[in-house]
Structure formats: structure tokens, C-alpha cells
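hey so i finally got around to running the thing on that chain from the lab meeting. sorry it took forever, my laptop kept dying and i had to restart like 3 times. anyway pasting the input first so we r on the same page abt which one it is
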Amino acid sequence: ALSGFGQCVGEVLQAVDDALGLQARQASDLRSGSLALAYGLSVAEGSDRQSIEALLLSARCGDERSVEQLWELLENIGAMRYLLIEAATRVARARVILDYVAPALTVGGRADLESVLDYIDPSNRLVT
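ok and heres what got predicted. didnt touch it at all, straight out
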């Protein structure tokens, strides 16, 4: 169960990192891949899909204008909302796992794990 908790925390951090990359319009995230890009490629259809593919190719060749346009397109088709929902889902799963294993943990151990989640999502509401 604690392995599942750790996996959820790792996935939350990845989603949050990708959301920050989307906001910052980082070209490096397009080269290494991001959940925002995966989301866009999985949901975009027609001309949006073609635009993503063309802009990605140009962006990976160093065209900064294409980088900005690609991030804008991904944001317009809902990538940020997707990332926040994914992060919130993983936090919720981690909290359920924590509740499940709570009887086997010391009070301090549970508090330490709860503090990890509180640090990631202090308001307990990633999706507003």
C-alpha cells in the first residue's frame, strides 16, 4: 500500500511539474515529453491534431515561435485543467491509501506522510 502511496505522490509531482511547464512555456518539456503534450495528442482532432504535430516538429527543431504557439494550443484545448484533475485524483488516491494503512503506522509516521500531501496540496483542493 505504501508503494502505491509513493507512486501517487510521484505522479502528482509530475503533473504539477508539467502544469508549471505549461505556464512557463518551456521548450525543454516538449523535447522530453509532458503530460500536457500527451493529453493534446490524445484528444485533439482534425486541424488541431495536425497543428499540434506540425508545431511539435518545428518546436523540436528550435523554432521558439512554434513553442509558444504549441503551448497556447494545448492550453486552449484544456491541458491545464487535465493536469490539475490528474494531480487532484492522485492526491485523493494517496489520501485513501493513507487511510487504509493508518492502523499500521505510528502516529508520527502517518503525520509525516500527511505532511507530504499537505505540502503538495495545502488547501486540499487542487481543482477549483
